[in-house]
Amino acid sequence: MRRTSARFKLVSAAAVAAAALTLTGANTLTGVAAETGTPAPLAADQPMGFGAGTTGGAGGTTVTVTNASQFIAAVQRSEPTVVRVNGTVNLSSMTKVASNKTVIGVGTSGKITGSGLNLNKVNNVIIRNLTFSGSNDDAINVQYSTKVWIDHNDISDANDGALDIKRASDHITVSWNRVHDHDKTFLLGHSDSNGGEDTGKLRVTYHHNWFDGTNQRHPRVRFGNPVHVLNNYYSNIGSYGVASTENAGVLVEGNYFENVEDPFHRGEGSSDVGGLAARNNHFVNSGQGETGGSVAPIPYGYTADSASSVKSIVSAGAGVGKI
């Protein structure tokens, strides 16, 4: 059982081979296409994984906003809406985003600063191509929400989490984001005592994200099973990569770990261990992860990029201005 502090630390120089895969009831993945070295497209029109079927504001009105008052009014409309952000939106507090919304930056100009976005008790929301920086709370908070796609954003320097997903949220995809200059990155499940709400939920796909010099929680998982951590690029990580706790089940597959002393482990802080399986990861100047326990099979089909190609694919495609 791995216990860590939140302090940044230097990484060691141990290069290792990928750890073995362990899945509940089988030694292979159900419905999974064979791994291939063919690069994935830099942007997709719809999410893959647990967030598949999320359409956001498609079919509704399109509104372009340039300031905070316009932004707040648009994202809180009751009807389906595509909100195009063209400029810097300076928020004073966490701002609710209503159901059936697509919030998308224009080119590289869409920026959210001052505070963050709150997806609370909503369904069918897309957040894409936005630069989040300097939030006085989280950059993005998701709770009691389903069918969410968070894609191609740049996130840094929030006071708390870059992206927190919690309180029975479910069916979410987090893809092609670049996170940098940040400590507590991607939290999945906020409390060891919230199993009554979270068990059977918190199913999230994290794919093709770039964790660029961040410290911890990439993600830190409670209860969700399975959680799929696929084809992400971890570079110069301070404390640890992935942690599975509180009976979670996490598959860490096809990721590229570079200068990461602790790529993945079971247990974290005072939280009990979860299940963690690893498959086809690539390690450069990194430690060996910890696996064990059981992980439910991934219930959707997909094609994994070759882990050795993930650094070039993700560093070219993650972040804003790529869609």
Topology:
Elements: E1 61-65, H1 68-75, E2 81-90, E3 95-96, E4 101-113, E5 117-120, E6 123-128, E7 131-133, E8 140-143, E9 146-151, E10 154-156, E11 163-166, E12 170-175, E13 178-180, E14 186-188, H2 195-198, E15 204-207, E16 210-212, E17 220-222, E18 227-230, E19 233-237, E20 242-245, E21 249-253, E22 256-260, E23 264-266, E24 275-279, E25 282-284, H3 310-317
Parallel strand pairs: 1-2, 2-4, 3-5, 4-6, 4-7, 5-8, 6-9, 7-10, 8-11, 9-12, 10-13, 11-14, 12-15, 13-16, 14-17, 15-18, 16-19, 17-20, 18-21, 19-22, 20-23, 21-24, 22-25
Produce a short descriptive summary.
The chain has helices spanning 68-75, 195-198, 310-317; strands at residues 61-65, 81-90, 95-96, 101-113, 117-120, 123-128, 131-133, 140-143, 146-151, 154-156, 163-166, 170-175, 178-180, 186-188, 204-207, 210-212, 220-222, 227-230, 233-237, 242-245, 249-253, 256-260, 264-266, 275-279, 282-284.
Account of the protein in words:
The protein is 6% helix and 36% strand. The protein is built from three helices and 25 strands. It starts with 60 loop residues before the first strand and ends in a 6-residue tail after the last helix. Residues 3-41 have low confidence and may be disordered.
- Along the chain, the helix and strand elements come as EHEEEEEEEEEEEEEHEEEEEEEEEEEH
| Structural class by SSE content | mainly beta
Residue runs with pLDDT of under 50 for 5 or more positions: 3-41
- Distance from first to last alpha carbon: 40 Å
Summarize the amount of helix as a percent range.
under 10%
Strand content: 35-45%
Given the structure, what is the number of helices? Answer: 3
Q: Can you count the beta strands?
A: 25
pLDDT averaged over residues: 89
Characterize the biggest β-sheet.
17 strands, parallel
- The Cα radius of gyration reads 18 Å
Instruction: Say what oligomer this is.
Output: single chain
What would the principal axes of the Cα set say about the shape? Answer: globular
